[in-house]
Give the backbone structure.
Amino acid sequence: MKSSPDPSLPLPSDPPIGVAVDGLVSLADGRRGLRGTIATVGAPTLENATLQSDELERRLLEMGFVEGARVEILHEGFIGRDPICVRLDDMRVALRRREARNVMVRRDANS
Amino acid sequence: MTHASAAPSILVPPAEAAADRLRVALVGNPNSGKTAMFNALTGARQKVANYAGVTVERKEGRILSPGGRTTVVLDLPGTYSLRARSPDEVVTRDAVLGRLAGEVPPDVVICVADATNLRLVLRLALELKAVGRPTVLALNMIDIAQRQGLDIDTDRLSAELGMPVVGTVATRRRGISELVTAVEARADAEAAAGRSNLGEHGWTEPSAAEIRHLHREAERILKACVRPPRRPDTWTGRMDDVLLHPVWGIGILLTVLFLMFQAVFTGAKPVMDLITAGFDALSALVAQGLPDGLLRSLICKGVIAGVGSVVVFLPQILILFLFIILLEDVGYMARAAFLLDRIMGGAGLHGRAFIPLLSSFACAIPGIMATRVIDNRRDRLTTILVAPLMTCSARIPVYTLIVSAFVPARQVLGGLSLQGLVFFGLYATGMLSALIVAWAVRKVFWRSASEPFLMELPSYKVPDPANVLRNVALRGHIFLRRAGTTILSMMVLIWFLCTVPGPPVGAAGPAIDYSFAGVIGHAIEPLLAPIGFSWQMSVALIPGMAAREVAVGALGTVYAVSGGEEASGVLGASLAHQWSLASALAFLAWYVFAPQCASTLAVVKRETNSWRWPIIMFGYMTGLAYVAAFVVYHTAVALGAG
């Protein structure tokens, strides 16, 4: 279900760096209510320089952020909407947007 | 310590040791009920220590089976993977692999799983299986799974994983004997096959591709063996809608923290007063029976007062840990960390650092012990280092004495009390400097490396009272046995310095002036003169190391004003007469920062298992105190307050 980004969707005000050409959105740029399926984890970015991206990728995988997992943003922190709480399959996980950068989500059509 | 039982015995051949003493290690994800399982297996037969050379807590217990067989159970730190990311997880990995120094490798590993949340633990179980260590999977909280209508085909699961699977309810001790039986059978099968638990098992750190592969395998097993719940837990979601709400969530969090602070700060007060009074009475009683002299002084002012100064912390520690353990067991702690992460993260602190830091307003000792809630070692050390900068209750008598003697009781800025403002300023200075120091520690020691914040938010659960009480009692026990001994010896040392040698016959000045403390005070006076301290102030700092509030009594002693804390009005008047305002303000600035508390340093030593961190703490706090007092003194002198 590849689709181009719907212009009416509430995309973040920042430059949409997370939005790839094929309709994927970075979990870091999602707002509360975003639902979808994880498409890729660990594509290299410049932003999260604190950990080697390979290490961060493995930690995300170990926490259950794997390709094909269902994900939904349930809650956002009250300062800068950070960190976020997501439903990940049947678990709940909190993470900072910085760490969510590498998780690309294929958004559900109705979210 | 437990090392006598943990070290491999030279006299008993390994095969024989394995035959009569089975060794089991508990491995599991965080929040899987592993601690409850450990308590259910071992009951009261537990020992807590540290692993050799690291600060990781080592919990060992014993199961006595009806057949007279003894099984030693080791509770390993929770982890999501054998790919260790923290010192705790390194211990878990090395123990499982049989390469942990000073530990006999386990015969069997019990993998503790939350039956309602199997996805990640199945991958861990597959990792354990790949290592080749015999493993039994305990499906804990199976009652909650059944209530949710979650169907688990345990036979199929057992066949897929290639390990026995036992359903348990650790908090109600259900399934525990079946689990022990399965573990013993597994160990016997290994022994019959002639396989030994000794020697390292092969293991290499999995790559991202291997983790993905294992995860797919776990996913496949999950789909094959578990039917999703017919009545899924909707409570957690509904509670999170309130508790993580930007407005309600923060409001509730502040209420919880306020209640906790109140309980630690005021709730413990009557008991603490009672303990102090009790030890004072005991001291007076003993004093009656002993002739005046050094022995009486040692027993009354050294030992009894020293033990008293240890026990007096106990109410605060028990109340604080009651809150912490309840919040952990309910599942709220992770939510609090979520809500506070951004605020604390700005200074490079973990969201969970909030609780230790808040507790430190009552006393840094329970606060530093509470840093156990922070898993990451660096975050934990940073929190420990800044905790004493929070204005603890022992500073209040000192602040009260100086502020009421030197700050005029008038109102400024339309109705605000000037003394109150100064008090607020002292508190604010402490907090602000803690944030700055935390930020600097991260830059200097950790070279700005920051840990990712990636945390499971567990389902809410009703805590098990017996488990909570056992864990609270354990914390109290650990404090008395481990920190208490160090605190006591420091108290006796300080007593010695302040008492020996005694004054010569017919001496005019106060006795302390002739003691080692007096000698030291006079010796450091030239160092403290630039910050405006007289020799009397310098001398008072030495007994003040016992506890900050002792400085009030010590000042009374050196200025020969008797009556201690109760006479602080008289003492204040005397000080106002003899100190300049600049000196008084410098003394306040000193007390905001100075490590004037031997017990705190002792507890840091015990919690970090090394002298390195208390020395660093002493160094940086003394440095800050000196600079702050210097700046305050000279600014005040320049403004004409000299």
Notes: The two ends of chain A are 14 Å apart (CA to CA). The first helix of chain A runs from residue 53 to 62. The beta strands of chain A are 24-26, 35-41, 70-79, 82-88, 91-95, 103-107.
